[in-house]
Amino acid sequence: MAFRRLFVLPTLLLLLAVVAPLVTGVETLYYRDVLSTHFPLKAAQALLLETKLDSGLDEATLLPLVDPYRAGQALLGNPNALVLYPTSLLLLVADALWTLNAHFWLHLLIAPWAGYWLGRAWGFGRPGAWTVGVAYASSGFFLSLFNLFNMIAGAALAPAFIAATLDATRSEPAASHAARRRRWVLVVGLWALVVLGGDPTLAVATAALAASAMVARDAGSVPVQAILRRLGVLLAAGVGGLLVAAPQIVELARILPRSARGYWRLDAGSILVQSLHPLSLLEQLSPLLFGAVEAGYWGMSLHQGNEPLLASLHPGWAVLALAVAGWPTASRRLRLWAAAWIGVGLFFALGVYNPLAPYLLDLPGASLLRYPVRLWSVVALALAVLAGAGLDALMRGAGHRRYRAVLSVALLGAVLALAGLVLPGAPTIRGLRSLAPERLVPELLAVEAFRWSLSWALLGLLCVVLWALSARWRRAPALAASATLICHLGTQLVFLGSLLDTDAAAPYRRPPEVLAQIPAGALIVHSASQSLFGGPSLPGLDVEERSLIPSVRQRHREATPFFGIGWGRRYALATTPEGLDSFFTVAMRSSMARAEDAQRVRLLQASGVDVLIVPRPVVHDSLHELTTIPGTSPGASLSFVYRVDGSPPPYALIETVRAAPNMSVGAEILASAEFDPLREVLLPSDDAPSDRTPFEDSTLPAGWSVRGLDAPTVDVLHDAPERVELDVEAPRGGVLVATERAWLPVWRARVDDEDSKVVVANLHRLAVVVPPGSHRVALWVDRRPTRAAVAVSLLTLLGLALLCLRRPNRTA
Question: How does strand 734-742 pair with strand 651-654?
Fold first, then answer.
């Protein structure tokens, strides 16, 4: 009871106080990937679920393979959508925005318990084990995940999976067979959740952490054969978890080869982007040293010109002090495990700054190391475990001198840093400004200097308070430990609270006003969100406002895909940054970004686009202005909304074919003034009957014939996201083009009773060649692999349930 009152309750109250606006739905996270990448994926899943609730659920609703609101890109096969992760069930009772935010705050509340379990598995007392959870959940690494929907789940569950592995492999002669089976079932279930959490790199790192923890614990005390046997069982459990997650894995495998990520080999620069610059390690000592997210990060030069993937790596001075205090008193095996993983994490996180990086890139699976700073996860977890060992030691009366020594050095550092701000010449300011003189302009430098002063003053005060509390460790260790953790967590939430920055949710629950001017069912391109017409229209950072909220609200006003999808609007060329959308769509987007305005308009027509939203005026005979969208501040530039004429209907039977040997030539043909998308279609040369020749007797495949000179007609009988049926009257034959659907390798086609090849039309659209005559044409997504994967997953779950329920054999 005392443990819950002194340790658990204060932690949960502090965390709940921070996330209360998200829990109540009054506010929403908004920074970077939250709304720009993950919200539209969740909104699409919610809309698909909502449309089927009244008519009954089916497999296409529960396991949607394509996203109709992004012109048919993959959904289930994209791990970033987390379609199968349990938080998706919240869509049954809540809207997509609340569900999205719940995914974050639920895992923040789970993380301390997962760390506590890991600490107990290493043999810590309850206060020390709880320290592991608090240190990990409040680390800069973990709080930085509050804009990474596809990483926070795996990160939160990683300590629990390692702990479950240690428990399942522990030698306990008194444990019953049923108890051991249940432990292994728990390992399988947690591993499946880590895999479904959306980040393969974190999943691999978690598996390695778990296996190595078991080996480190048992080495020297358990026979080698027993360790190998346990590793074998752990491998089998890992396979079981993959089988549970089979539907997502199978669908990813189906789309990956023809996705941008799978088709294009990533170069070294793409793989090693977001490497850990050595100077970034200074952030271990000073939180948000290079800028806060709400003020705009100014240390881009440390991250190859980008904002950092992880906005902070600061673990907290209390954690560092506890880790140093606990190091000599921790078991040799624990020290070896933690030190090894700190070294491994640092080695890989350095990425491009690691001199061995060129050799590592030649290894199989090197592309998994994209964004190498993600491997800081193992460092954050290892530091948290050492901090738990340190608090355990302090409660036993050990390590007090080392603990105070670290606090003294930290206090001295804070005083020196403050002095460097006020001494003549301000050496601290000069040193920091030299890192980014072009961005750290005088106005922002003054604001940052004030923020640094407050941070270092608060850090110095924290050291004084922790030093004062250290006098209570021997007389009232529980109270001292509880107060230490409360001080640490409170200061971390103050320092890094901007990583959980929120905005009012109400504006995003209202449809953008401009949608009233756009016809329902129109296929939209928002050029600024993909930089298609000369770059983004979003306003830059206002140094006085010190907020990114105006730019995010401007995205809402402009009905970007991030917000329009939530209101059932469909967008073309709305790709996501992880590279799992169709290679052909990404290539078309790249071609458009490089073209001139007139060529861009023709590429839009060939893609079946009806509406263009662009940050500047564009003059073209096929564009007709519908409305304008003013900026959020006086004098801000307008965005323009145009109707695009000359685009073919959603399903068009085209008789004249052009052939292209490659994507570059194809883009030139589509962008040329001679190409008419209403009467011509572009096919890859291998699929094209001829080059710019109508389907006539002389060019038809053997067995085809002309049945008259009537115009072709297309009647849509059924139009669903994953199945289309049409009656086609094709007097001279032609190509049936689904002008608003992306080509994916999961699509199949049938003309009457004959299977037909699905081809790529106009560089990225779905199409099928139709012979002359009247035909029933069907296009559908092949779900046979999905059904097989679901069957495997259900059978695995059934087997796990039977293992839990199985009664031990009784002998007479």
Answer: antiparallel
